[in-house]
Design a protein that fits this description.
The chain has 349 residues and is of the alpha/beta class. The protein has one domain (14-343): 3-Layer(aba) Sandwich (Cytosolic phospholipase A2 catalytic domain), CATH 3.40.1090. It contains 14 helices and eight strands. Strands 1, 2, 3, 4, 5, 6, 7 and 8 form an eight-stranded mixed β-sheet that branches. Helix 3 packs across helix 7.
């Protein structure tokens, strides 16, 4: 009798979601923390992921881990990438290797920041880094199984790149995942030479989509998309110093395309009351796990900081932010949109 009763007990229903992971260099450790906490939910099932730059790398690591060992495997894969990154210098910025040695000698203030900015205006990566050395390539090869990703049909992956010559968005799919395409998605042109892939040259995908949501809408069955932003949308106070101005320009630039895409999705839904059920936009439910106050407190220079202490502290904030979101909204996945659309609107409130 007891055996029959056990047979009747159904396994918890899976909660299928897609992840949209924004780029932001070392600040992508926030996403590491967010996803690490999400993966503790036994019912969570990730169908697809779209990412740019560090977001694309996070997505690739997550996919490898999921394919090898489920949710726990994905957590371990993220740990492996970020811990390996912390053992390197210059993965997101070639000057970081000598930047760190100056920092301790000047009580946290580094003249290298100023020198780097000046040099970036006078020397291109083709002059300052003629051998095109990028330590991130070695880290990717050590931590991500690209053969596994290429042959994977279970988890849909999308990474964004910007075609330098055509100004076109390039979305790399599963069978195109490689260290070169992830480097292309992460290539900041003032720091690294354009990445060649199949006779085309690419810069950071954030210029065109950070990340793009459309592939998740068209290619995935799940209608729930969890967006994990890195760049602050609102940043109180008018920037006045050169550094403050450049930091805010960076945030605005790398948020612009995502904000427009979110607005377009909502307009399609609102102004098309008679959308056919099969229309891919009809049932899209957007969610967002973000920490505006914390991310706004980080300067753009921290996007290049690969110190383990810093990365772990950002990860913990990501975990805490995700934990709060899970308690409040996780049960609404599959039922309703939870994104604060007022925060993401393009017009003035």
């Amino acid at each position: 009798m007891k055996t029959k009763e056990k047979e009747k007990v159904k396994a918890p229903q899976k909660v299928s979601v897609n992840l949209a992971l924004q780029g932001g260099g070392a600040q992508g450790a926030f996403t590491w923390g967010v996803v690490d906490r999400l993966l503790e939910e036994k019912t969570l099932d990730i169908e697809g992921m779209s990412g740019t730059s560090a977001g694309a790398i996070n997505a690739a690591a997550i996919a490898c881990g999921l394919l090898k060992g489920g949710n726990e495997g994905a957590r371990k894969a993220l740990d492996k990438f970020w811990h390996t990154l912390s053992e390197s210098t210059g993965a997101f910025n070639p000057s970081q290797a000598w930047h760190s040695s100056f920092k301790s000698n000047f009580f946290g203030w580094s003249p290298v920041d100023m020198v780097r900015d000046i040099l970036s205006q006078t020397l291109s990566p083709y002059q300052s880094n003629p051998l095109n050395y990028n330590p991130l390539k070695e880290i990717l090869l050590k931590t991500i199984d690209f053969k596994l990703l290429e042959n994977n049909t279970k988890i849909k992956l999308f990474a964004c790149g910007t075609n330098v010559e055509t100004n076109a968005l390039k979305v790399f799919h599963n069978d195109e995942m490689s260290e070169e395409t992830l480097l292309a998605s992460s290539c900041l042109p003032n720091l690294f030479q354009a990445v060649e892939w199949k006779k085309n040259y690419y810069w950071d995908g954030g210029f065109m989509g950070n990340p793009v949501l459309e592939p998740l809408i068209y290619h995935c069955k799940s209608k729930d998309i969890i967006v994990v932003p890195i760049n602050a949308i609102r940043h109180p106070g008018i920037p006045k110093t050169p550094k403050q101005i450049l930091d805010r320009v960076n945030e605005i630039t790398f948020n612009a395309n995502l904000m427009r895409e979110i607005r377009s999705i909502r307009q399609i839904q609102q102004f098309s009351d008679h959308l056919a059920p099969e229309n891919p936009f009809a049932e899209v439910r957007l969610h967002c796990i973000q920490n505006e106050e914390f991310m706004a407190s980080l300067g753009v220079d921290t996007k290049y900081t690969t110190d383990r202490g810093f990365l772990n502290s950002v990860k913990e904030v990501g975990r805490e932010t995700a934990d709060q979101w899970i308690k409040k909204y996780y049960h609404l996945i599959g039922k309703e949109m939870t994104m604060d659309l007022g925060l993401w609107r393009m017009d003035e409130p």
